[in-house]
Design brief:
Helix content: over 70%
Number of strands: 0
Order of helices and strands: HHHHHHHHHHHHHHHHHHHH
Largest sheet: none
Shape: globular
Number of helices: 20
Radius of gyration: 22 Å
Low-confidence stretches: 1-36, 70-92, 103-130
Oligomer: single chain
Mean pLDDT: 75
Structural class: mainly alpha
Distance between the termini: 41 Å
């Protein structure tokens, strides 16, 4: 049962690059995690580098090298996490996978555990829903056990997936576990609990207090979650674009990927919101975000170049942004539209099919989902 609109948490793009790792790399990842091999050293490992280049482009690999040092501990966790998430497809037993998941829960590693479980509940990876349901229940057991013992992280994970509609839990239990998580310092739980309390006049004041407390935390995930609530709006919590703008401007100061994604959201706010509509600011923030590697902003700029909106029509510039998103950002939507463009050139103008095959193969290997709305807009603009 869905209690709220689904909120998508940001995660590191590295989760896609080790889907085809062989068992021979197991010790590499384990050694990296225990000895704290530097991100640069890890990426320069020949086997790992070859795997990345085999599945992605040189530009994508260069981008990982460029940003490796900024990932620090999260980088290590992501690498280790990726291996175990996908490793069972290459012979890693369910027991080993469960033990690794249990390790993260025991150490209260919220971000890593969430990323691990994100793959488990991803139905797109399972052709048989019954198998997905069976696997999800199996991997949930250590989380459920810890939640019963009062571990805040485990409780919040169960709440998060109940909210997203991927776990059955009654409303009162959800409220109780969110309250426990919030009391133990998980500010995202304060946001969800505060939202719930707003639905009842008797608890409305407490709900507002929790939202204000969460906002004051300054934590990037929490501010991002709050801003998404203020942008989407609902009967319980009406849209408040000014408040969302304030939070996003605060996030922009935090640097790196947080600032990059906040700038994209600011671009969206200034482009789509009637209350704050400002084409000049929208273009500014889209460009800043795109230059930092946000693929959603890169696709928006490509669309603008194709339509002649906010900028002059420029197919070569549009293609440049599409290629950046497809190669450096490994964006499936960009790869798919480039495949369609070069297929059209091959069929109708007799051009060589090499480019079409390149983008088609990259898209087929890419486990991401296509942004159907953006794909449709790009397709209509190019071919209409």
């Amino acid at each position: 049962m869905n209690y709220f609109n689904k909120i998508v948490f940001t995660s590191i793009s590295l989760c896609f690059m080790i889907t085809s790792c062989s068992d021979s790399l197991k010790s590499e990842f384990e050694d990296c995690y225990t000895t704290k091999t530097s991100p640069i050293e890890l990426l320069q490992n020949k086997d790992i580098k070859d795997r990345i280049l085999e599945n992605y482009s040189q530009q994508y690999y260069d981008k990982l090298i460029e940003n490796a040092d900024t990932y620090s501990k999260v980088f290590y966790d992501s690498i280790q996490n990726c291996y175990y998430m996908y490793g069972h497809k290459q012979g890693i037993s369910n027991k080993d996978f469960s033990n690794q998941l249990r390790y993260y829960i025991n150490n209260d590693s919220l971000a890593v555990t969430l990323r691990m479980y994100n793959v488990i509940i991803d139905k797109s990876g399972e052709s048989d829903y019954a198998n997905w349901e069976k696997n999800a229940k199996q991997y949930l057991k250590p989380i459920e056990a810890k939640a019963k013992k009062g571990y805040a992280t485990a409780q919040y994970i169960l709440c998060k997936y109940a909210i997203d509609g991927n776990y059955e839990i009654d409303f009162d239990k959800l409220k109780t576990m969110l309250s426990s998580s919030a009391q133990n310092g998980i500010s995202e739980a304060e946001v969800y609990l505060g939202y719930m309390l707003l639905t009842d006049e008797k608890t409305k004041n407490e709900g507002n207090r929790l939202l204000q407390k969460a906002e004051a935390s300054g934590e990037s995930q929490t501010l991002s979650l709050l801003s998404s609530f203020f942008i989407s709006g609902s009967e319980t919590l009406p849209s408040d674009y000014k408040r969302a703008e304030k939070l996003l401007l605060e996030l922009e100061k935090q640097g790196n990927e947080v600032a990059r994604d906040a700038r994209h959201d600011l671009g969206e706010l200034y482009y789509k919101s009637q209350d704050l509509k400002n084409p000049t600011k929208a273009l500014k923030y889209y460009q800043l975000s795109a230059e930092q590697g946000n693929t959603k902003s890169q696709l928006m700029l490509a669309l603008f170049c194709l339509q002649g909106e906010l900028v002059e029509k420029d197919w070569s510039k549009a293609e440049e942004w599409l290629r950046k998103a497809a190669e450096e950002g490994n964006d499936k939507t960009a790869q798919e539209i480039l495949a369609q463009v070069y297929l059209n050139l091959s069929v109708n103008q007799g051009e060589d099919a090499t480019e079409y095959l390149k983008w088609k193969q990259m898209s087929d290997r890419n486990p991401q989902e296509v942004d159907k709305k953006m794909l449709g807009l790009l397709f209509f603009t190019i071919f209409n």
